[in-house]
Design goal:
This protein is mainly alpha-helical. It has 3 helices and no strands.
Length: 69
Amino acid sequence: MIALGRKNWLFAGSLRAGQRAAAIMSLLHTARLNGHEPYAYLKDVLERLPTQPASALAELLPYHWKPSA
């Protein structure tokens, strides 16, 4: 997956877009390494993010994340 991403990032459109894509891929890969299904993790985090207090954002990181009920 990383080798494929490396070629795709050449066409991200700009340096900042490539950096964002790399950050998202890194976050999803970390979720996978922590035993989470990446789609379920990302969906839950994006749904909870607007109401999550800034002081509790660390709870949404893959190594602290617990699925919402």
